[in-house]
Amino acid sequence: MAVVEKYSQLKKKRISLRDAIPLVKPFTILFEPASICNFKCRCCFHSEPDIYSFLPKGSMKFDDFRKIADDLAAWEGDKIKIIRIIGFGEPLVNPQTPSMVKYLKELDVAERIEITSNASLLSPEISQQFIDYGLDYIRCSIYAIEQRRHETQTQNRISIETIKNNISVLKELRDSAGRSKPFIYVKMLASRDEFENALFLTEYSGIADEAALEKTHSWLSDTCALSGKTRNVCPQPFKMLSIHYNGDVILCDPDWKGNTRVGNALTENISSIWGGSKIRRFWRMQLENRRHENESCRHCSFLIDDYAIDDLDGVSLEILGDD
């Protein structure tokens, strides 16, 4: 089997955004198969009582997905670097998600296709499809290593052993087929309990290709921000687009309130949105240190903790040319 690079190592090959903007294409496209989730994690906006007052609720139709994917394939130039199938819900809620992976791989529109899932719906049939269709990476999110805490954190009573078995079966099917993909990356939000962190790494290191602890992000709030350098310019809108199930395009993956919306990929071409006036005005707002004018940007912890790898502070407006 070919050796697949560890997920945690991929960032080491990244291009310096400061030296590359404005990009001809975004480095990353996020597709949202569904805005619905079968978990209501306490660390997530899905635990908010008024979530669907802001977030459109539903699943992406395959014909709508195909229209957007075809537009991406017709966009001249280099491939998109990464297409992430994630969004604001659990992707496997939508039964069309494996077919979306297949279609993207057939179009050869991106250097890498990955999916993020809580793995609760990762059946052997879906796992086999991901293997057959050539999914590159799957990121499985674990929220607790003990059943009672899992139920408290996710407000879902599925057995943690079921989730663990789902991931294990994926690896067994993949290995028995002599494949190296999808690479299985299992992550848990770091607990304050070091024993729980160690137990997670012990239990999943033998099941996943890579197990890791990740830090908490507080979704448009700075209440859980980690200590670190505070920056003024957010790099996200300069390198990525996130596409809702209904075609709405936003510039920030945590923006569940939709305040960074710049168009709709069902009624517009995605390449026109990327080069359009709305996104350029948003870029200008960021470079002029006016992110406080956007409600979703105002208190986001992305720039307060160390999520933001790229530093765009001080970049001249001249890079945008004439608006």
Secondary-structure topology with pairs:
Elements: H1 17-20, E1 28-31, H2 51-54, H3 62-74, E2 80-85, H4 97-107, E3 110-117, H5 124-133, E4 137-142, H6 147-154, H7 160-176, E5 183-189, H8 194-205, E6 210-214, H9 236-239, E7 240-243, E8 248-250, E9 261-264, H10 270-274, H11 277-287, H12 295-298
Parallel strand pairs: 1-2, 1-7, 2-3, 3-4, 4-5, 5-6
Antiparallel strand pairs: 7-8, 8-9
Helix pairs in contact: 3-4, 4-5, 5-7
Care to describe what's here?
The chain is α/β, with parallel strands linked by helices. It is built from twelve helices and nine strands. It has helices at residues 17-20, 51-54, 62-74, 97-107, 124-133, 147-154, 160-176, 194-205, 236-239, 270-274, 277-287, 295-298, and strands at residues 28-31, 80-85, 110-117, 137-142, 183-189, 210-214, 240-243, 248-250, 261-264. The chain has a nine-stranded mixed β-sheet with strand order 6-5-4-3-2-1-7-8-9. Helix 5 links the parallel strand 3 and strand 4 (137-142). The mean pLDDT is 90.
Features:
32% helix, alpha/beta, globular, 323 residues
Indicate the low-confidence ranges by residue numbers.
Answer: none
What is the first-to-last residue Cα distance?
50 Å
| Total of DSSP H or I helical runs spanning 4+ residues | 12
Strand line-up across the major sheet: 6-5-4-3-2-1-7-8-9
Large-scale geometry = globular
pLDDT average, as an integer? 90
The main pleated sheet reads as: 9 strands, mixed
How large a portion of the residues is in β-strands, by DSSP E?
A: 5-15%
Radius of gyration: 19 Å
Looking at how many chains there are and whether they match, the oligomeric state comes to: single chain
Order of helices and strands: HEHHEHEHEHHEHEHEEEHHH
Q: How many distinct beta strands?
A: 9
Class by alpha and beta content: alpha/beta
- The helicity comes to 25-40%
